[in-house]
Amino acid sequence: MYAARQRIYLDTNVLVAKVKGEEDRVKKIAYWENYVAKEPKRRLIISIFTLMELLHVIRNALAKTLDPSTDLDQARDYVIERSSSLFNEILEDMIRLPEIYAIVLDIDITISKRELELQNKYVGRIRRRKCECGKSFVLRYGGVGHADMVHLAIARQLACDTFLTFDKGFTPLKKIVHPPEIIVL
């Protein structure tokens, strides 16, 4: 356990929960925002990789809201326009709170074989979930993926002492990866 958490890296799913307004998760995020606000040296770290992934998630979510018979050019224009607007709102909110958020736009990242070894060794669970149609079930892999390992590598390289995520796939890594300390919210 690290006593003084100063640099707290946010996984993309933390920002996604805020965007979606997932009440229980937003309360957990608010705890960390308040924690950071109490000490001038503390920051919630958001990387360019996190922002890129967030933009992708927003665009996918918007596309899913459209009728499948929508003209593809119109759908594309809508998704681009609306996602840019939403994304800029989110970014502006974070920029207005420099005492809480630090956005790292330029990263020279080295991904070592350690990330591959961790992903290979700590396999997640296979889960049964309802498909999007809601009528049948599909199997889903519930472990860490390549993007998750890139987030960990970035957090380490940015000297973050804590890694916040809602992804339960990180649970097996909590005892193995230090720093950063992984906290599954």
Low-confidence stretches: none
**For the largest beta sheet, what order do the strands appear in spatially?**
3-2-1-6-7
Total individual domains: 1
What integer value in Å does the Rg equal? Answer: 18 Å
Question: Distance between the terminal alpha carbons, to the nearest Å?
Answer: 15 Å
Topology:
Elements: E1 7-10, H1 12-20, H2 23-37, E2 43-47, H3 48-65, H4 72-95, E3 101-104, H5 113-121, E4 126-130, E5 137-141, H6 146-157, E6 162-165, E7 181-184
Helix pairs in contact: 1-3, 3-4, 5-6
Verbal overview:
- The chain has one domain (7-184): Rossmann fold.
- 21% of the residues are buried.
- The model has no long low-confidence stretch (mean pLDDT 90).
- Helices cover 47% and strands 17% of the residues.
- With 185 residues, it is an alpha/beta fold.
- Helix 1 packs across helix 3 (48-65).
- The strands form two sheets. Strands 3-2-1-6-7 form a five-stranded parallel β-sheet, sandwiched between helices.
- It is globular and about 55 Å long.
- It has helices at 12-20, 23-37, 48-65, 72-95, 113-121, 146-157, and strands spanning 7-10, 43-47, 101-104, 126-130, 137-141, 162-165, 181-184.
- The protein is built from six helices and seven strands.
